[in-house]
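Q: I have 281 residues here and want to know how they pack in 3D. Can you give me a structure?
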Amino acid sequence: MTLSNIIGIAICQLINPALTTEASRVPDMILYIAIISTPVCISALAIASKPPTPPSPSGETEKFPLCEGLLSLLKNLDFLCIFISFAIFVGFFNAFTSLIEQIMAPYGWSDSQAGIAGATLTVVGLLSAILFSFFLDKSQRYLQSIRTIVPVVSLSFLSFIFVIHFNSSFAVVAVMCGVLGASAFSLLPLALELAVECTHPVSPQLSTGILWISGQLFGAIFLVTMNALRYPSNEGDPKGNYLRALIFQGTLSMAAVPLSWVIGRFGQRVNRRLVIDKTNA
């Protein structure tokens, strides 16, 4: 399910620019999205609330009601750390991918180069997420993985201050987009799975739904903030650049790294579902 969301994002990022070659075609693109998404949303009503047979022993556990589940999440320090990290990194990723063309344009890079950078980020990220999901499913090393990947994502965001502003090689930009895509896309299934593990028996729909909402909300906030930090069209070197926005992105990303290091150190069991499944295997 996590990969289906990633694939959908990747397809949209690749197809939408091809459909909107002119500003006047943006309403047409929105209409196409509405035509495709409406019947898909309606079909979701036919999906059963749960499978006829639980996929694992932990699936038979009675889940908390909504209010009790929300209260449990608020008291779970591990989940709160995941929540803040997820909101920041997904938010910045959404904002950065939305602004990548505007970020690169002041430095003389063309729209096609910005498109290649975005496609590199998406394709490399998608392939990495697929491979990493298999690894995570087999190894179940959630804590070790998140403590490794989060610093890589943060350093990738920080590096764009130098890669964009002080670098003239497009190859370096493309490589760093690939690194950011690989680490950021891999973080998605990892954070969602770890959130479900450490909050069981809270409903997975509740914990992961809150994470997705936070990521989209922070993405909108960061998008507005980064645009506000952009130099005016007659100021900066080069004029109209996003250097201050990139510094904001890199600094806040690095500040969020310690949150990944304290997950699992609050005396609460993290792999709750795995313990139940192994005990009843």
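Q: Anything worth noting?
A: The chain has a mean pLDDT of 84. The chain has eleven helices and no strands.
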